[in-house]
Amino acid sequence: MPTKGWVFATIAAILAAAAFAAPTESVIYSFSDYSDGSGPRGALIFDTNGNIYGTTFGGGTGSCEAGCGTVFELTLSNGVWTKNTIYNFMGGNDGSFPWSGVTADASGNLYGTTNSGGTCCGGGYGTVYELTPSDSGWAETVLYRFLNGSYPYGGVVIDRKGDLYGTTYGGGSHSDGTVFRLDHTKNGWAEDVLYNFCSLSGCSDGAAPQDGLTADDHGNLYGTTYAGGAYPNGYGTVFELSRQNGAGNWKESVLYAFQSRSDGKNPESGVTFDKQGNLYGTTFEGGASENGTVFELTPSGKTWTHTAILQFSGGNDGGVPMSRVTIDGNGDLYGTTYIGGTHERGTVYKLILTNNGWREVVLYDFCSVQGCSDGFEPAGPVTLNSGVVYGTTLDGGTGACMYGCGTVFQLAR
After folding, report:
1. CA end-to-end span of the chain, whole Å?
2. Rounded to an integer, what distance in angstroms lies between the CA atom of residue 337 and that of residue 98?
3. Contact, 146 vs 129, CB < 8 A?
4. What's the number of CA atoms in the CB half-sphere (13 Å) around residue 293?
5. What are the CA-CA distances from residue 159 to residues 163, 164, 171 (Å)?
């Protein structure tokens, strides 16, 4: 007969295993062909009714080869998700190729960016757009067509006044990217370039931001640059733009410049705050195996301390994270890797803070072998809603595109 200690130990082991039991992946939508949309990679958002909104980088009915991208809505009814394309980018004045997802205001209007387009016949350096719902459908309005900056990869954040903030990968006074604001005035929208990045000799502020911004409670802005930070071979930075005395005055500070060592290099995604004011993010490359990292920046006075809390190996643990992390109410981190996992097609991971540091749990491995239809190569972040993890894959699924058209998935227990 087993002893009480053995019984208690067994119960504890069972409870621990249950706590970390792998969730079940379900594809809630698989894009069917190019006209339906292809290559979803931006963050998903939920409205108050539980509907999901997102974008596809390509596909749709626009005039670009294989489509110019779409904005879509997923609605749940009787356990089945139904997809509705609420806008097809046409590749002209309206923009093309939305790289990031959309942001909603309090009235339910959606805002986002397109990576290119904005002028006739496929030209242009990208746009900021608004989608407004009505009884007859959604109407798109181009709020700004870029001239001073170019090629926005990241989306926009909205402040309390309704102004929009974002970044451009290129353009600006040094052609190394910008941080911009769109002011919402009674006469329309006006662009204000808050900062011009520089990678020239003598510059160390960073260059080529590839994601959007995060704001703190004081309205200061935080983000990353893919390159720059130390001339001439900078590997990217984490930066802050802080408001100064006087209207329109902003100061840029480099919180950390990556060194291309175990700390990582070339962050493609932005940063996320926890409740204590620490910043978390990922690097696309670097680390011990050159497969990227997850990092933490901890403030202490006017300085920030960098810690690489995970260095991906590119094996079963995943590799090459392209998206920012998402934080739950317990302070645990969630994210995706573009490659790695047991099938080498990407993962969804969770980082749990323990007494011995951060522990990685791979929640799901994507698969592209014959018979798999779950999607593969997740490039965007995950969204948490009621304990369920939602995200997208660039490729895979059951669609008729060359490598599949991509999926929207959920992970639930």
Report:
1. 34
2. 21
3. no
4. 25
5. 6, 7, 24
391-403 residue pLDDT tens? 999 999 999 999 9
Give the three-state DSSP class for 121.
helix
Residue 17 lies in a domain: no
d(CA 146, CA 126): 6
Q: Residue 76 in 3-state DSSP?
A: strand
Residue 9 lies in a domain: no
The CA–CA distances, whole Å, from 305 to 115, 146, 229, 256, 288 equal 33, 36, 16, 8, 19
- Rounded to two decimals, the pTM is 0.93
Structural domains of the chain, count: 1
Buried b (16+ CB within 10 A) or exposed e, 215-236: eeeeebbbbbbbbbbbeeebbb
* Residue 21 resides in a domain: no
Spatial separation of the C-alpha atoms in residues 219 and 214, rounded to whole Å: 9
Read off the amino acid at residue 279: L
Q: Exposed (0-12), middle (13-18) or buried (19+): which is 16, by Cβ within 10 Å?
A: exposed
Q: How buried is 165 (Cβ within 10 angstroms: 0-12 exposed, 13-18 middle, 19+ buried)?
A: buried
Could you give the CA distance from residue 378 to residue 365 in angstroms, rounded to a whole number?
10
Q: How many CB atoms lie within 10 A of CB 303?
A: 10
Torsion, CA 340, CA 343, CA 349, CA 351, rounded to 10:
-70
Which domain covers residue 197, as residue numbers? 27-412
pLDDT tens readout for residues 160-187: 999 999 999 999 999 999 999 999 888 8
Tokens read off for 319: 């590799």
Residues 250, 144: Cα–Cα separation, whole Å: 22
Helix (H) or strand (E) holding 77: strand 70-77
- CATH code of the domain covering residue 116: 2.130.10.130
Distance CA 209, CA 177 (A): 7
Find, among 65, 138, 62, the residue nearest to 93 by Cα. 62
Q: Tell me: the pLDDT tens digits for 14-29?
A: 444 445 578 999 999 9
CB 333 within 8 A of CB 326: yes
CA distance 315 to 59: 32
pLDDT in tens, 231-274: 767 999 999 999 887 656 899 999 999 999 899 999 999 999 99
Residue 330 neighbours by CB distance under 10 Å: 7
Q: What backbone torsions phi and psi does residue 120 show, to the nearest 5 degrees?
A: -60, 145
Quick check: is 4 in a domain?
no
